Every structure is written in structure tokens, then in C-alpha cells.
Amino acid sequence: MKISQAVQDVLEVVPDHVTVVAAAKHRTPAEIEEAIGAGIRHIGQNYVQEAEDLRRAVKTEAVWHLIGHLQRNKARRALASCDWIDSIDSLRLARRVEAIAADMDRVVPVLVEINSGREANKTGFLPEDVEEAVRKMVDLPHIQVKGVMTMGPRFGNPEDSRPYFVETRRVFERLGAAQLAHVRMEILSMGMSNSYRVAIEEGANMVRLGTVLFGARPA
Ligand SMILES: *Cc1c(COP(=O)(O)O)cnc(C)c1O
Question: What's the chain's Rg over C-alpha atoms?
């Protein structure tokens, strides 16, 4: 299917209050331009190098998000090429982003990543640890915590993702109720191509979609 058609189909079924981030790893500038042309406003990148190359090549206006794990030594380059960091997965990374953002005289919107599946091979805060960490981020004036994001384990059946989305939504609500200074719990980013419908049912207002927009990923 053409990307522009796939984007239109998705934007038609996704409710207006839900932001679609096009997860564009390994995509070409032309593919990304086509998605933006069809109505995508947010682009997600996994790799700093790719984000740099693509941002240079893609001329149309969009908001760029880093959605993949960020190594601290690449934080400066990440901030130069991305508007949001959606994958703050440690306090050390938050502090590094704070230092660079201060240097750049900028306030960077970020999402805090939750390892909702408690998977050993995934980064992110465990659900029970995230509040303490976010309380410490309050003291970092150049990052603005906007919400949380989770990947969750990958399943063939999207219904299997539901408990992880529910748990992440509870964390999101708890953080919102805590009313921390400078923290605005606005964004709940969860759900990918095979699970975004379930994620939206469970409260997601940002979804990250790759395959359903662009087709199967090139090897
Ligand atoms: C690739 C990726 C997605 C999108 O995955 P699809 O299954 O292709 O929709 C979402 N989030 C992150 C962090 C990703 O790396």
C-alpha cells in the first residue's frame, strides 16, 4: 500500500486527541516526506545518526522525537537533531540531558520510559521506581517532564499487551495526582502497529506506528 494511503487510513480511525508518531527507523527521506504530506506531524527516530541524517534531508516541518534508547555520550547530538526525548530511562540520562539543554539555553520536553514488562533486556524504570525518579527530575529546570512512554513486551495477540498498558496508565495517573512542580502529566505514549487500538482503549494519547504506516521494515 502507498504510505500516503496508509497514513490517511490510520488518521481516520485514530481519535483526534491521539497524536500519531511515525516510527521511521530505517526509512528514507522520501518516505518520511510522503508521510508528512499525508498528515503526519510527529516523527520518531531510534538512532541518533539516522536522526541527524534524516533531519538534514527532510525539508518539511515536523516535530522530531527520539524514541530509542539514548546513550549519554550521544545526548548532545540527540538534542541537536530531536525536539523531544521520549526515552528517558535513567536519572543519569535525565541529568545529562539537563546539562546539555542548559548549555543550549533550551527547555526540552521529555517522556519517562517505563519498563512495564519488567524485561531484563529492556531499559526504563520499573513501575514502582518511576515516581521517586520523577521527583528528582523536578530539580532539573531544562527538562520538562510531559508524560510517560512504554514499549511493553511484543506479542502476536495485542490483547496480551493490555495488562502492561493498564499498569502504565496507573503510573501515569499516579504521577499526575502527585502534582509535582514543573511536571505536567499530559502524554501517555504506548501502542505500536499491532497494539495501538488496545493502547488507545487503555488511555494512550500518543501512539508510535511504524509498520502499519510504512510497510514491513527493510532488513
Ligand atoms: C519501531 C518502534 C515502534 C513501531 O513499531 P511498529 O511495530 O513497526 O509499529 C514504536 N516504538 C519504538 C520505540 C520503536 O522502536
Answer: 16
Please give the Cα distance from 122 to 105 (Å, whole number).
Answer: 31
pTM here? 0.96
Residue 23: Cβ within 10 Å count: 25
Grid coordinates representing 82 are 530531536
* Distance (Å, whole) CA 82 – CA 78: 6
92-144 pLDDT, tens digit each: 999 999 999 999 999 999 999 999 999 999 999 999 999 999 999 999 999 99
- Which of 69, 192, 200, 207 gets mutated to test ligand 1 (max ligand atoms within 8 A of its CB)? 192
Specify the residue with its C-alpha closest to ligand 1, atom 7: 193
Ligand 1, residue 193: give the atom nearest the CA: 9
Q: How far apart are CA 78 and CA 88, in angstroms?
A: 12
Instruction: Give the containing element (helix H, strand E) for 162.
Output: helix 162-178
Q: For residue 32, how far is its CA from the centre of ligand 1 (angstroms)?
A: 15
Place of cell 510531559: 146
- 135-141's contacts with Cβ under 8 Å and 24+ in sequence apart are 135/178, 135/180, 136/91, 136/94, 137/88, 137/91, 137/94, 137/112, 137/183, 138/180, 138/181, 138/182, 138/183, 140/94, 140/95, 140/98, 141/98, 141/102, 141/107, 141/182
Residues with CB under 6 A from ligand 1: 23, 25, 46, 67-68, 151, 192-193, 208-212
DSSP 90: S
